[in-house]
Amino acid sequence: MVTIAQCQRLQSAWFAALATATGGRTFSTHGCTWAWLPARSQLMLLFPEEVSPAGIRPALAEGTRLGAKTVGVWLNGAVRSSALSGLGFDPGWQPWWMAAPASRAAAYDDGPAELSTEVPEYSGPLARELRVVRSQPRQAWHAETRVGGNVVGAAYGFYPSGVAGLKGVGGIFSLEVLPQYRRRGLGTALVSRAAKAATASGAQHLAVNAAPSGSEFFAGRGFELVGRGKTFWMSL
User: Fold this and answer.
1) Strand, helix or coil at 156?
2) What φ, ψ does residue 199 adopt, rounded to 5°?
3) Which H or E element spans position 82?
4) What gap in Å lies between CA 140 and CA 231, rounded to an integer?
5) To bridge 37 with a disulfide, which of 23, 42, 152, 163 should be the other Cys (CB 3.0-4.6 Å)?
6) CA–CA dist 157, 198 (Å, integer)
7) What pTM was computed for the model?
8) pLDDT tens, 7-18?
9) What 3-state class would DSSP assign to 96?
C-alpha cells in the first residue's frame, strides 16, 4: 500500500529530477529543502516538517537572485501553515494523493499513445523539461497522443532509482489533454503507456497528485485516495 509519505518523497524526487535536467538544483536552508526549477522560474519548498521563517526568508532572497517569479510551498496536511500568510503566501490548490497497482493502470488500451524523447512542437518550458527523459531514460518517460499529426495530450511516467522509501513506487506527472479532445480515451491511453514503461522498470505501484477536478478521472482508472496535502504560493 502506498503512503502519503511515499507520495511526498516521489513528488520531491520528480522536482529534483526536473531541476537537474533543466539546469536547476536542490538546496537546503535551516531544515527546509528547496528545488529551483528554472524552466518555469519556480522555487519549490518540499514538505518541511514545520514552517520555519528562518528557513524560508534566506531561500526567498536566493530565489530573487536566481530570477524566480513564483515560489511554491508543498505541505503535508497535518503541518501548521499559519506562518506562511505573514510571509506573503496565499493558499493554493489541494493535492489529492492517489495510488493504484501499476499493473492495473497499465492494463488499459494504450494504442493512441506513444513514448517520445523529442517533440518538435514543444518550445519554452515544455521543451526544456523534456530533457528529463533524455538525461534519465531508465527512470523517466514522456508519453504523447496525436490527432491529425498534432500533439493533443501528454504525460510523464517516473520511477526513480535509489530513493529511500520508494522501492516499487513510481508516478505519473503532468497529465494533460487539450479540452476539445477529452473523453476520447486519450487520457486513459497516456496513463496506460506511462504505466507500462514504469512497470517494465520495476514499479509495482503508481501515485499521482491529482487536483480535485482530476480525482474523478483517476478514480475511474483504478486509483484510490491516499490523502490530501496543501500548497501555498507567492509571486516575487
Assistant:
1) strand
2) -65, -40
3) helix 82-86
4) 25
5) 42
6) 6
7) 0.96
8) 999 999 999 999
9) strand
CA angle 149, 152, 70 (to 5 degrees): 135
Q: 230 is written with which cell numbers?
A: 496543501
Domain boundaries, the chain: 4-95, 98-227
Nearest to 83 by CA among 16, 43, 32: 32
Strand-pair category, 113-115 with 150-158:
unpaired
Cell numbers describing residue 156: 510523464
The residues facing 224 across adjacent strands are 99
Residue 119: how many other CB atoms lie within 10 Å: 15
Burial-class residue 52 by CB neighbours within 10 Å (0-12, 13-18, 19+): middle
CB 230 within 8 A of CB 91: yes
pLDDT tens for 209-218 read 998 888 999 9
Give the DSSP letter of residue 201.
T
Name the nearest CA neighbour of 33 among 18, 16, 20, 14. Answer: 16
Tell which phi-psi region holds residue 70, choosing left (phi > 0), alpha (psi between -120 and 50) or beta: beta
Given a contact cutoff of 8 angstroms between Cβ atoms, the answer to whether 140 and 163 are in contact is no
Q: Which class is domain 98-227?
A: alpha beta
